[in-house]
User: Fold this.
Amino acid sequence: MTIIFVLIPLGLVLTVLAVWALFWAVGSGQFDDLDSPGWSVLRDDERGGRE
Amino acid sequence: MNAQVSGCFHCGLPVPAGAPVRVTIEGIEREVCCHGCEAAALVIDAAGLADYYAWRTVSAPRPVPKSADPWAAFDRDSFTRGLLRTGSATTVNLLLEGVRCSACGWLIEQRLLQLPGVTSVMLNPATARARVEFNGIALSSILRAIATLGYRPHVLGAADTLEVATRERRQALKRLGVAGFGMMQVMMIAVAFYGADGAGMSPVIRDYLRLISLLITVPVALYAGVPFYAGAARALAARQLSMDVPVTLGVLLAFAASAVNTLRGTGQVYFDSVTMFLFLLLLGRYLEMIARHRATSTAEALARLMPQFARKLTAQGELELPLAALATGDTVRVAVGEAFPADGTLIGAATLADESLLTGESVPVVKRPGDAVIGGTVNVLGPAVVTLTSLGDSTVLAGIVRLLERASTERPARARLADRMAAQFVAVVLLAAVATALAWLYLDPTRAFAATLAVLVVSCPCALSLATPVAVTAAMAALARRGVLVTRADALEALAVADVALIDKTGTLTVGRPQLSSVAVRGPCTATECLALAAGLERSSGHPFAHAFEVFAAAPATDLAVTAGAGVEGLTGGTRYRIGHAAFVAALAGLRPAEFGEDGVHLGRPGQWLARFELEDRPRAGARAAVSALRDAGLAIEIVSGDHAAPVAALANLLGIERHAGRLTPADKLARVRALQLSGARVVVIGDGINDAPCLRAADVSIAIGSGSALAQANADLIIPGNDLGIIAAAVMTARRTRTIIRQNLLWAGGYNLVSLPLAACGLVPPWLAAVGMSASSLLVVANALRLSRVTTPAATAAPNTPPCQPKLAGAAR
Assistant:
């Protein structure tokens, strides 16, 4: 069972990384608008087709 | 990749033949359409930003040539004083018109950062907003730099509400994330203890696992839980009890006891309960916040419709000025596709205005010279010249936004009641916790702490006080998307229980523009002559009846005098004529012939009766379906009108309404409302907002329908700025569903607390189960309320050609 003395701290490090990633994503505004980026893909295509 | 630009290298518009303007970008000569684009391209190239042309996905907007430098106005002290300052740096929020893709954002960011004195630029292409921090550079230079690139900056106030909402949402997401990750980790470890309470586990591993749990719980308790502690502190400082108080007490007690027990290596730990409790509570708060933001975004979008610049026509020519520099009476030119900068009167050529943002009506409205245009609506046909009649806060749009804001800040009476009940409930819970602790200390001290904790945690005042506001907010947002604006928080409650609908005729059930249906002639003149005389007399009377004669060739009339409520008198070809009510004409023409009844519009001259015109107002499209939908909803329907009895009866017949009354003065209508209310009915009055003001005020709930300036002044509870009557029935149904859901929520919250509290006090609920129960209960309430935000369209009222309001608002706010 001694392996948990290594594995659990490792898991904690991963958790910290995940929280950091979330904070970064929130801070850079990735959750601010969840609707229009999806639409923008379609919109660009349409324009490209016309030109 | 560069979009294959066939025209101008910069903006993509066709290059005019004859005198092409050429510009050399990265050593290659390109054709551009004008010197504005030449300048913009040169600026971009000189700044070393030509990569933009390779990266962009959309052609750049064409820079607007300007006759004067409008940006200097932003350097005035009176303006810059309002900006946010931190130390020597100033921060300004900009809304950038024309930002369409992230390449635009990159371009602007890079260009601004090259300016000496700009310290930071944060730009979000999705919302087209930028936050620029600068120090030692004039604001006008920044704005000018953006304008040279072809984008149009709008300066927003320091406290931009969108930004406040964004910050709030980001903060909540971070806390939710920390609590969520923490909960997952702690639960994973806690499972090891669940089996047989850690029996057979070596003490070293047990202490180790507990220490790890403590480590994970620290940020959850000390960071994610802060909003609850702050809420509790605020409530206590105001000498009140809020639902945050038992939450805070429970979390902090459990956390402190667990931490102490972990360090001492004895007793129970509750890390699983603490993290799960906080995570689920935060989730509920987050959902509630989303519903709230969604409701305010409608008002926001409306407020942002107003353009910030206008081209003022002066003796020197056109001047581009910020809106703040304009005054009532100024004349401005509005190009095609631009929004009118303020309310005004159209002069010059006729045009079409797209008022869909206000009304949901997709067909543009014809505007003739002299017609009123509403600030924020879009000019779609040709260039328009407008004399401004009201600006800023006094515009129609500002009025509607104010009403909406009032509704979103006000709490419905039922919610206030629930708040008071929740506060009392919290007091009961705290007392129960103390009683539980004392009782268990006497009976079995080892179980005292767990039972007290369970009582604190299991009780769910949030479900009680969330039940109403979340449902009302969700319903208001859903209605706003359908084109019904709720301006009073209590209105939905009243609408749900209404049983009689009094509907005004002119302008509500009908279009409000009477048309000529028949002419009865007597005496020497032909029908054509009579119509010409009538058209001449009514030409400038402004009465709704006048519209009916507009289409006929007018005999020139002079010396016109309007008698309000009676008619018009004037001189045509040397003879005096009168047109209007029978009595008014009789005063000039003498006795009335038998066949000229009381109704209709009469024309006469001294000693002679000439004609009697029958006018008819067209019913609105869908009026019949709307009336039957209302009747299906169980409302008794009555027409109350100031119009003559005969046309009222005809319309009532057509629409299948049995009760109707004509020739009512506003006082009569008011009396009718009062009489119905005395008989115990709850009355909804539906009118166009102008003629019915007293009656609308007296009603239990009032609905104003129509378009134009009257709506903003109409102090109605619900405003429908469109022409779709059918939506009223949909609003009634939504109001009823809201009431049902509020009842379900209150019932659930009450039942849950009634069962769970005694169980917890008896020590039958372990703290972790208490945390699950309480959080699940409040989540259930919020989720139930959010069902209202799904817009359901009853088949009878579906308007196939009316797209929902929201996407349009979003699009226009770009």
The first helix of chain B runs from residue 35 to 46. The mean pLDDT of chain B is 76. Residues 356 and 362 of chain B are 5 Å apart (CA to CA).
